[in-house]
Here is the input.
Amino acid sequence: MTRRSPTSELLIRAADDPAVMARFWSHVRRLAGTACWIWTGAISGRGHGRFWVRDDRVVIAHRLAWAATYPGQPVPRLLSHDCDNPTCVNPAHLRSGTDATNRAEYQARAGTPGSPLNDTRGARARAEALRAAARQGQDLNSAIAAGLSALDRDQPGLW
Ligand SMILES: [Zn+2]
Here is the structure.
C-alpha cells in the first residue's frame, strides 16, 4: 500500500467536501479556443494556482483538481502538465511524474518554437496574463501571443 503524505490526505479530504470544491471550481474558467482550464485565483511564483483549503492551509490548485478526479486516491507528489501551462487545472492535462521526468520533458520542450515554456514574461507573469484574460472571458490567444518572441510568434501554438 502506498504511504499517504499529510498533504495528500488534506487534498483527499478537501476534494470530498462539496463546499470547498464549489469554492474551488468558482476560480476555474473554461474558455473557447483552449482545452486548458484556467485558474483565476492566486498564483505562485512558478505560475501554479494556489488555493486555501482552510484558513491556514494552501495547496497547489491542480493537485486538488486531480484529487477531485480520483476520489480517495493518493495524490502524486509531482504532477506534470502535458500542456506546459502551469495554471491549468484540467485533470486530463495532468500526469504523474518525477523530478527526473519533469526535468527531461522541460529540457525537451523548452526549445520548441511556440512552447509556453519559452514565454518571455516567465511562468508567473504568463499565468497572471492568462488569468486576467480568463476573468474577463476573453479569448486567450492575444494573452498568449503577447509573451512570444518574434521568432516564436510565427509558429503555431501547442495548445
Ligand atoms: Zn492544460
Notes: The beta strands are 28-30, 37-39, 42-43, 49-54, 57-60, 79-81, 94-96. The CA atoms of residues 79 and 97 lie 6 Å apart. The mean pLDDT is 89.
